Amino acid sequence: MPINVFQQSRQKLTLYYSLIMAVFLIVLIIVVHQSMEWSMESEQARELVDTAGRIAGGQEYLMQHPELLEDADDWRMESSDRLFFYVFDNEGEPVNFSRASEQLEPFVLDVIGKWNTDPGEVDVVTDYSRRRQSRIMMTSQPMMADGEQVATVYVGKDVTAMYNGLEKATYSLAGLAVLALALAAGVGHVLAGEAIVPLIEAYEKQRQFAADASHELRTPLSVVMASADLLDNDPSITSPFLKQVIGDVRDEVKKMTKLVSDLLFVARSDNQALKLKRSKIDVAAAADQTIRLMQPLADKKQISLLREGEAALVAKLDEQKIKQLLLILVDNAVKYTMEGGKVTVRVLLLAAGKIRIEVEDTGIGISKEDKTKIFDRFFRVDKARSREMGGNGLGLAIAQEIVTLHGGTINVESELGKGTKFIVTVKG
Ligand code: ADP
Taking the alpha carbons of 406, 411, 417, 418 in that order, is the dihedral positive or negative? Predict the structure, then answer.
């Protein structure tokens, strides 16, 4: 399970890194595109305004010398370098022009008809009406005679190719950015992998230590337990005080032994060293046995322990682990149920060979927010209460581990003050 956590962290790190890179590249592309557009546009616009000034000057000269216009057709040439101009007098009659290309002209005339940009200002207009959009850049200049405006010169340029070029450049930049992003994600993944190696090693060492320590503690604990048993049975010890002390030692050693074996289980499960030993077992009989084991404790609290469901149910499961799971759930149910309560263990056969084990109690219940945490290691709703009853907060973590090993699910339904129901589903 922790190995997955490391993998998840690695993926998360890579994802965050890639997202940051993506945002950075997108901003970069936008900035580059805008600045290219701006510099090209301003350069073209300056040229256009200059040209417009020169044409207006030339036209003014021609108007003052109309004899030069006699062979007007010479002037009305089609423009060759995408540049065109039209001169209209105050009545809107054309005075002179150097025409835009045939396809573009209707659009240009339309733009001139609607023109309301200030003289000397440049505007870029796009023709969306055709499939291949064309774009023109235009400016206007007034033509003066004797201090009065007599006509207007409209000078424009077909800038379609320029914008298309800009678009292509932006697309290639975006393509490069995608490649860079893929590369960055790859590098990020490798680096994140490298970064978590020391973490995995440190975790592994710590896990190994927990496993070794709990393993090593088992022997001395059993020696202490055996000695305490010996003393307990020694007829020469008659003092009630000493008997009490021996009893306390036995209780504490029992708790420690349980804690140590739980720790060992958890450490082994982290190491994926836990293997299932599946064999044909009777789950219903295992439930009956658990009830028999728990009966003395239940009797102490006048809790009735009931068994419902199948009388026999054979399935291929790990016997020892299923018994451990049942014990954890029934033990909890008895622990967290008040005197006179009821605990029911149900073993049910579902469709498709699935087995459902339910352990239901009429106990203290679990609040909604604690329900998500009870399967965490060492989580206890009420630490003092749990410790007092011999709990260490590992029971449900182990229960979940056992169910996961069997490829099943464990869920909890509970209401504070009313009771709790643990539902385990495994495939037999
Ligand atoms: P513990 O050793 O403390 O019982 P567990 O992992 O078995 O540890 O359970 C975690 C916590 O979940 C317990 O401390 C308790 O607060 C809560 N809990 C578990 N089972 C029940 C139950 N049947 N009813 C109410 N609370 C429960």
Answer: negative
Is any ligand 1 atom within 6 A of the Cβ of residue 402?
A: no
Query: What is the domain-level CATH number for residue 316?
Result: 3.30.565.10
With a 6 Å cutoff on the Cβ, whether 347 touches ligand 1 is no
Is residue 159 in contact with ligand 1, taking CB distance under 6 Å?
no
Q: What is the residue whose two structure tokens read 């349980």?
A: 258
Tokens for 412, please give them: 């909890």
3-state secondary structure of 128: coil
Count of structural domains within the chain: 1
Is residue 363 lining ligand 1, measured as CB closer than 6 Å? yes
Q: What is the mean pLDDT of each run of 10 residues along the chain (428 residues)?
A: 77 92 95 94 92 87 74 50 87 87 90 91 88 88 86 92 92 94 92 90 88 89 94 92 94 92 87 84 96 95 96 94 96 95 96 93 95 93 81 92 94 96 94
DSSP string, 62-81: HHH-GGGGTTGGGT-PBPSS
User: The domain containing residue 416 runs over which residues?
Assistant: 278-427
Q: Could you tell me the distance, in angstroms and rounded to a whole number, from the CA of residue 393 to the centre of ligand 1?
A: 7
Q: Is 428 in the pocket of ligand 1 (CB under 6 A)?
A: no
CA-to-CA distance for 50 and 48, rounded, in angstroms?
5
In a domain, 379, yes or no: yes
CB 143 within 8 A of CB 150: yes
In a domain, 159, yes or no: no
CB count, 10 Å around CB of 371?
15
Pocket-testing residue among 342, 369, 380, 400, ligand 1, by greatest number of atoms within 8 A of Cβ = 380
Q: Is residue 50 part of a domain?
A: no
Helix H or strand E segment including 395: helix 395-405
Residues, the chain, total? 428
The rounded distance, in Å, linking the Cα atoms of 95 and 268 is: 96
pTM above threshold 0.90: no
Distance 337 CA to ligand 1 centre (A): 11
Ligand 1 pocket test: which of 334, 337, 342, 374 has the largest number of ligand atoms within 8 Å of its C-beta? 374
* Residue 177 within any structural domain of the chain: no
